[in-house]
Write a structure and sequence with these properties.
three-stranded antiparallel beta sheet; mainly alpha; 64% helix; 2 domains; elongated
Length: 188
């Protein structure tokens, strides 16, 4: 019997991303989600939320825990990523977000992990996101063209168009910066 699909949130994907880098215990993960840590700037999570996420991920077969020998009390669990968890994380990492509001959390998390994983194509991720934003912008512009010149709907559509255009400008700058960064890291 196959597992029911449960949507994972940004915190769960961030946990999978951290476990992609190395196995961790709960308090170690919590320190990486602290408000003053790089990851915490985007996705701050309290330790109780992290443990709930770890239990959910374990239930899905994405992570497993090993209990350390009881040299201290209470014994610590170290969490490891399973191949299923690795596949779920990579699929998420490669998929652009589909709403502009997801850029601030989900896409920034993807950039965070893409930058840490030397085998991931960060420029390609940004280009895929630009393409998704371009499609969204075209849909908005089409909707605007068919909207009366006054009214609230037009105001909302213009606001969304402005946000999409600003996001695409930011993404284009990020693409250029990442391409320059990668060119400096790779010998010709």
């Amino acid at each position: 019997m196959s597992r029911p699909k449960q949507p994972l949130g940004p915190t769960e994907f961030a946990v999978l991303g951290l476990l992609t880098l190395k196995p961790c215990h709960g308090y170690e993960l919590a320190s990486l989600f602290a408000a003053d840590a790089d990851l915490g700037l985007v996705c701050h999570a309290h330790i109780s939320v992290l443990y709930a996420s770890l239990r959910a991920l374990e239930g899905l077969g994405y992570v497993y825990a090993e209990t350390e020998a009881p040299s201290s009390y209470p014994p610590r669990k170290t969490y490891h990523l399973t191949p299923l968890g690795q596949t779920a994380f990579r699929r998420w990492l490669d998929e652009p977000v589909h709403r502009i509001r997801q850029i601030r959390l989900d896409f920034l998390l993807k950039l965070y992990f893409s930058g840490l994983l030397t085998d991931h194509d960060t420029v390609g991720l940004i280009e895929a996101q630009i393409a998704a934003c371009r499609t969204y912008l075209t849909e908005l512009q089409t909707a605007l063209a068919g909207t009366p010149s006054d009214g609230f709907r037009r105001l909302v559509l213009r606001s969304k168009i402005n946000a999409a255009e600003s996001t695409m400008d930011w993404l284009d700058r990020q693409r250029q910066e990442w391409a320059e960064h990668m060119a400096q890291r790779m010998p010709l």
